[in-house]
User: Fold this.
Amino acid sequence: MPQINLAASENAFRAIFDAYRDTINFSASNAGDFGPFSAAYSAGIRLEGGTVDLENSPDQVKISELDVVIDPLSLTLGIDIPSVCVGGFCIVPNPFGGCLVRLPRICLFEADPDISTTIDLGGLIESEISGAFDMKVSYFNNPDRAGLTDHQAHFAAKTNEWQLKLDPRWLDIDLIDISDTVGNILDSVIDNLVDGLLGGLPGWVKDAVRWILGGMADLIRGILDLADDVDEWLSNLLGTSLGLFDFIATWVADYFANREPVFSIEDPYPVIKAGSLIPVLIPIKNLSTDITDVELVVSADIG
Amino acid sequence: MAYTDNCDIFGGFHENGFNTIIQHIQHQRPSLFNYATMDLASNHEMLCKEIDFHEAVNRFDNPVVSSTPYLPIPGYDGTSGISYCIQITEAKIDFHPENSIPLPPELHPLGPQKMTLKAKICVGLGCPDRELTDKLSNEGKGRTSNDKKAPESPTTGIPFRRLTCFCLEVYGVINVIRSSDDLKMGLEGLEIVDIKPEGLENILECYVSTVIHLSLLPKLTLALSDLVFELTDLITLAPTPISAAVPFNPAIAQDEVKIMMNLTT
Assistant:
C-alpha cells in the first residue's frame, strides 16, 4: 500500500489544466518561394478553452476542442509579375531610314518580387487541438546538481524533480474556420497592390499595360493561384505550403510530453521549510499515477 | 468510493510514511530531540545515546543539541549546577485503529479519530564524585545567613566522570481538534510504563504532560486561515468544511491521516 495518496477530482484537474494551458504561448514563422509569388508568416500562438476528461481503461486524459488562437498573424505576400515593356516604338519615322522620334521605352515589373504586402490576419483563423494523453511519470536528474548535496541543491534551486507530463497518444489539429472577412481583406489588398504597381505611371502606360496583361487584379489572383475559395487557398498556403498547422501540433505535443510538466515535485521534498535550521528533506520514491473516470491519483512512498 | 467524492483535492498519509518522516526530522533536526546543558551540548558524544544525525547539520552549522540551563542545587550558594540531558531517542505514531503500537492497559483501546504517540525518552544526570562535592561544600562554609542573596542560576556545570542514564517509554493518545478558527492537537492521556513507586510515575507523567500541553501542542496549532493557500495565481485551496459527508477533516482512520481540500478559482 502506498504511503502517500494524493487525488485531484476531475474538476480540480480541469482547473489545474486550465492554469497550465494559460502559460502556453509561442511564436512561429516560416517562408517559402512558390515561383511567381513568395509568402511568409509570423504568428503568435496561444491556447484557450477546451474540455478535459479523465478516462479509465485505458488510463488517459482526453482533451477536446482546445482552441488554438493565432494572434497576431501577419502574412507577407511577394508577387513577381511578368516583365512588361511598353513604348520604344517609332512615332516619326525618318524617310531616309531610321526613326526621328521614338516613344520612350518603359519596362515594368523587372524586380522579384515586384511588390510585397503584409496582411494582418490576427484572430481570423480558428483551429482546434484534440488529443488523448498518458500521464507520464518521469524523473528529472538536474544536470546542474552534479556535485551538490541534497541541501546544497535545495538552497541553490538545482534539485531533481519528479515530473508528471501529458504524453500524447494521439493529437489532431483541425482548421475550423477562416473568417469571412479574410476574402474582403484579400480583395482590398489586391486593389491596393494594383494601385501601388501602376500608381504614378503616365495614363498611356497604364492603358498599355492593361492591354497587354489584362485586368491587373485578375492577374494577381492568377499569380497567387487564388481561386474563388479563399478559405481553401489560405488553408493550403498556411497549412500545406508553409506548414503552420503541423508546426503547431508538433510544438504542442513536444511541450506537453517533453518540456513542461503539469505537476512537478521536488525530490527530496522539503517537508519542513528552512528557517533558522536547515529544511527537512524527504526522499520521494515509487511515484505512480492512476486515472479513473472521476479523479487522478498520485501515489508515492517515503524513502 | 473515490478519494475525491466529497472534496476537490485529497491527501492520505499512512502511518508508515509518517514514521519515516519523523525519522528524517530526527536525523536532520536533532536539536529538536536532544536537550542538554552547555557542557554536554558541546560534547554530545557524552550523552546517554549516541546521536545519528545528517551530515548537513554540521555542514550548515546547525546545532546537534539544544542547550538548557544547569540544574540548580537547592540551598547551595555557588555558581555551579548539575549537568543533565534529555533525549527523545525514538518517536513513533500509530493512527487508529490500534495495531503497530500496543497501548498500555491504562490507555487501551485507542478510540476512533485518535492516534498513539510512543516516545522513548532517555534522561542522564552528571553525578559528581564525592571528593568534588566535599570540596565544593568546604568552599561554601563560613558564609553566614547574612551573606545569602537571592539564588542565581548556575553558570557552570559540576565536573563528573560519566552520565548516569535511564530511559522511559512514554505513550500518549492524541486527537485532532478543529474549531472554527484553528486546528490543534489535544493530549487525551499519557502513560509512562514501569516506574515505581506510583507517586513518582504520577509526578513524571504530570511533568511530561504539562510540557506537552504548554510547550509542544501550542506549536502544533494551525490557524485555518494559514491552511488556505494559492496553488497558482488563480487557484486557491482551503480545507473542506465539516459537514455530514465530511464529519472530520483531517480524519484519522485506516492507519492514515486524511486531509480534504476544496478548490476555488
Chain A is about 30% helix and 45% strand.
